[in-house]
Amino acid sequence: SKDGVLFKTFKGRVDKMVLVEGPFGAIRVSKLFPAAATFGKLNTAMQLRMVAQACKSVVVLYDADALKEGLETRFKLGNMIPTKVVFLKNKTQPDSMTVQQLKDAMSEAF
Prior knowledge:
The protein is an alpha/beta fold. The chain has helices at residues 23-29, 45-54, 67-78, 99-106, and strands spanning 7-8, 14-20, 35-37, 55-60, 83-85. Strand 2, helix 1 and strand 3 form a beta-alpha-beta unit.
C-alpha cells in the first residue's frame, strides 16, 4: 500500500514544493524546485498530511491526463496549506519535460 509513502527530493520542511505523480517526475522537477511524488494521481489522506507537513505551500503538477485528480488534490490540500495547480497540455508529463519547459510551466506558480 502507498498509504504512508511520499517520495521527497529534500529533507526537512521547505517554503514551496511541487507535487507530482511519480518519482521520476519529482527527480526532474527537483532540478529547479523541491519536489515530492505520490506514486499516482490518486492520493491518500495520510499522503496529503505528509505534504502539508513538508512545506508551507504546494504546487500540484500532475500529468496532462490527470486534470480532475489535480483539482481534487488542490481542493483537499487547500484546507491545510496554500495550494496551486499548474495544468500541463498535450499529454505532457513532468518526467519527460526539459528543464526549460518546466521553468516555463512553473513561471506563474513561483
